[in-house]
Amino acid sequence: MRSALGLMLASVVAAVLIAGVWFLTVSPPGSPAAPQTIAAAQAAPLPAPAAAKFAQPRDDVEVTGTVPPPAAPVPQPKSSCANPDALGVARVVEIDTTGGPGFGFEHFKQLDFLADKEVVLTFDDGPWPANTPAVLKALADECTKAVFFPIGKHATYHPEILKQVAAAGHAVGAHTWSHVNLNSKKMTEQLAKDEIEKGYSAVRFALGSAPSPFFRFPELQHGPAAVAYLGTRDIAIFSCDLDSFDFRAKTAEQIVTTVMTKLDKQGKGIILMHDFQKHTAEALPTLLRRLKAGGYKVVQMRAKAPVQTLPEYDEALVKEMKLPAAGNRPVGSVVQTVAQ
Ligand SMILES: [Zn+2]
After folding, report:
1. Mean pLDDT across the stretch 30-45?
2. What are the catalytic residues?
């Protein structure tokens, strides 16, 4: 009885292995049956919106198949880190932004999700030429991930740089349209809403796809009405645990010293920096090495679902940019050779 069962099991295993080998041999690269990440990596250049959609989660998605073939190596985007001593990412957390949770002990103390020695890297006010690409390079060299809070206006000035941020697998939220203080005396609820929504629509416009429902108030100035509004929009609010004060720093070294001194005292936290600032871009390679040397670990935060931008703000922004809606389409989708 046992040997008959063994025989049956063996033939099932053999059939599965054969099926696996057949699948790998027969399936052309990028076929609909292949895992999505591989298809995305091998497909011909996609139109901008689709490319952004695929590019963002690519690094984070485990490539799994129903038939794991032991002998055939499957390309693993995760192992693409060329630096064996990289800081890397120790843990990936997915954030359900329903109801607008707040993060960062400077203002929100309910959600204490970081363990001792864990940090989250965040960058505000970009995208900006030279500085944002330098920040991206430093992060890529250490195979680590961050959260970016771009200013809407800057996103419309430099959409190609913001696309690089998303394509590198970082989370992209928003930081208002024009970086006004939403908690000032002159601010009305309608103006605050306009700043928030237009900011998201601008980032969406730049990326070609919806960003994460992550928001940071300019100057960390939050008022109760705006906080309540973000709650109704299911947008998470990011304050910080640790301000680098990099916008005040006179040198890159000063930023490294400020962050490491605060971190060694506090032990963990969400670190606020600015990819807009030249000194921050200069400080980052050293800072990331110091984090690694100090035993700190990076936690990557990503959203469970993208933000739902409001159509009226999307449309108003397109009009304001004086661009036809078709302006974003790749030439191949507008002009096709039908006879030659
Ligand atoms: Zn800012």
Report:
1. 36
2. 124, 274
